[in-house]
Amino acid sequence: MSAKRNDTPHDKLPIRMLHDRVLVRQENGEGERRSGGGILIPATAAVGRRLAWAEVVAVGQNVRTVEPGDRVLYDPEDRAEVEVRGVGYVLMRERDLHAVAADRFEGSEDSTGLYL
Length: 116
What we know:
globular; chaperone; disordered N terminus; about 0% helix; unfolded protein binding; seven-stranded antiparallel β-sheet; ATP binding; GroES-like_sf
């Protein structure tokens, strides 16, 4: 089974994930962000433990719940960073993911598009 199941912008990565590993790319940096009401929150603002969203780039052969292109929710404090061709990625185990959001969930009955 191939490490990449769908065509993604990262198809040319010279890497193959093993076992239950998932390689993701963070959606936004650690910089400023906006609240739901449009308020600008500076990067230096202290917040509690905050989970982050990322896009799945590659998965190992034993990963069953996510595919490349899915968005996943994870804890940024429990991560291992790696750089491939000058781009930073996060490497983690499938069990460290908290949620999956994917377009393929939209067509199923009683689905919110978010798998927790």
